[in-house]
């Protein structure tokens, strides 16, 4: 079965039946996708950085109204923070999203206060202010 057709059918069923499903926390997918990227010893650190990045996305309202796996794809670019050169194409292949989606999320992140931090600051500093991100800025 084509997984995209299955997902489309599922969404149609949910809408037709007017179901209210609980929101899925995107961080639940991070470790699974990180393992699929075959990062070796760096898998845990990449997953931890990706979860921290996800928290920053959430704090800046970047996760609202977006599908969890698409947010995970952007967060898994945290592999680059650990000198593991995974390309956008490799992440797209594992997470099964479009490369433009990853690029858009990263462009949005660059416009937040967290996006201008150095790597050392990103891992140690927790910004208190949030940017009320809206899609109008895109």
UniProtKB/TrEMBL annotation:
<feature type="domain" description="Cyclin-like">
    <location>
        <begin position="28"/>
        <end position="111"/>
    </location>
</feature>
<dbReference type="GO" id="GO:0008270">
    <property type="term" value="F:zinc ion binding"/>
</dbReference>
<dbReference type="InterPro" id="IPR036915">
    <property type="entry name" value="Cyclin-like_sf"/>
</dbReference>
<dbReference type="InterPro" id="IPR000812">
    <property type="entry name" value="TFIIB"/>
</dbReference>
<dbReference type="GO" id="GO:0000995">
    <property type="term" value="F:RNA polymerase III general transcription initiation factor activity"/>
</dbReference>
<dbReference type="GO" id="GO:0070897">
    <property type="term" value="P:transcription preinitiation complex assembly"/>
</dbReference>
<dbReference type="GO" id="GO:0097550">
    <property type="term" value="C:transcription preinitiation complex"/>
</dbReference>
<dbReference type="GO" id="GO:0005634">
    <property type="term" value="C:nucleus"/>
</dbReference>
<keyword id="KW-0862">Zinc</keyword>
<dbReference type="InterPro" id="IPR013763">
    <property type="entry name" value="Cyclin-like_dom"/>
</dbReference>
<keyword id="KW-0804">Transcription</keyword>
<keyword id="KW-0863">Zinc-finger</keyword>
<comment type="similarity">
    <text>Belongs to the TFIIB family.</text>
</comment>
<protein>
    <submittedName>
        <fullName>Transcription factor IIIB 60 kDa subunit</fullName>
    </submittedName>
</protein>
<keyword id="KW-0539">Nucleus</keyword>
<dbReference type="GO" id="GO:0017025">
    <property type="term" value="F:TBP-class protein binding"/>
</dbReference>
<dbReference type="GO" id="GO:0001006">
    <property type="term" value="F:RNA polymerase III type 3 promoter sequence-specific DNA binding"/>
</dbReference>
<dbReference type="GO" id="GO:0000126">
    <property type="term" value="C:transcription factor TFIIIB complex"/>
</dbReference>
<keyword id="KW-0805">Transcription regulation</keyword>
<dbReference type="Pfam" id="PF00382">
    <property type="entry name" value="TFIIB"/>
</dbReference>
<dbReference type="InterPro" id="IPR013150">
    <property type="entry name" value="TFIIB_cyclin"/>
</dbReference>
<keyword id="KW-0479">Metal-binding</keyword>
